[in-house]
Hints:
five-stranded antiparallel beta sheet, Neuraminidase, mainly beta
Amino acid sequence: MPIRKLADMVVYRDDAYYCSPGPSVVTMPDGEVHVFFRRHWTWPLTPLLLHAHPGTEQCVVRSADGGATWEDAPGFLPGGGNCPCVTLLSDGALLFARHRFTPVLKCLLEGDLETYQAQHHSADWTLVGAGVEVWRSDDRGAHWAGPYWIDDVPGLEPGADGLHTPLGLRGWPVELSDGTVGLPVYADGAGAVLVTSADGGRTWQYRGTAVTGPDDEPGAYNEWHLQQTPSGDLVAFIRCQLSGDAYGFLQTSRSSDGGRTWTPPERQPVWGFPHHALPMPSGRLLLTYGYRREPYGVRARLIDAECTRFDGEELVLRDDAGHWDMGYPHAALLPDGRAIVVYYFNDAPDGQRYIAASVVEEL
């Protein structure tokens, strides 16, 4: 086994709060580890499984000892929203990206709900896609500038006046070799879309589309992660929800022109989603992903730096979750070369969701 797990830990848990999908972890230059996550108070009349609650809070907890201990009380970031994707740029700035939904009475909408990228319907209410926003901090998260919205994606229009392009996000800002920052967003009908910023995340432009779903399954390709290889290629790690036997298998696409054109998606021998790839000290990538079929948990494997071989031995990080509502891992290197992998987790089908982590090392 080229990697091994050293420990599991609870990063944040308060059974009064449901911690939703999508934590992020960042190791600061001084070694302090920051974990960003979202939570909402579990109202008595609110179902446990609710991924876009209007009362969502964006939070951060920190560890000064490599994850051995964590702050008891979280700090807070601006506003609510979904899937906090946080990256530390080479200039020391933190970029915090997320997507938003806004609750709307169905009687106020005209036409097909798909027009609004609507999700999580009830009898009277739906959640309309409000857009992807980016915030920037130049002082370790003490203050944030923004929001900087992502708009002008071909083929997509805001669902209503005052909203932004209805995009989703589960991928992190990535500094590219051409000096821009890339961000992998997605939308039903538009597929996996790359936008870039030439000014550190303050303004964004459409660059290209990695893949779109077929007409009868417009949302088949959605949450994706972007990685640049040593040769300069961009590789997309794409969640696949095509019907049939392709469902759940990692799909990859490759661009050799900075993300403007892409190869057709290629199915890889990796079942699980969504994905994150972290460069390790050896140069290989630690690929992590949720495993949302029994036994529920989180898995990992090492792949080569150019992302051409995916048949390495799989490491089971966790297989003791009580329900498929968990996963969404993200990893960062600790100062000693180990990696910390954060994810949201549960202990039982009706157990509260919380933020957990595992520490791994290369052999």
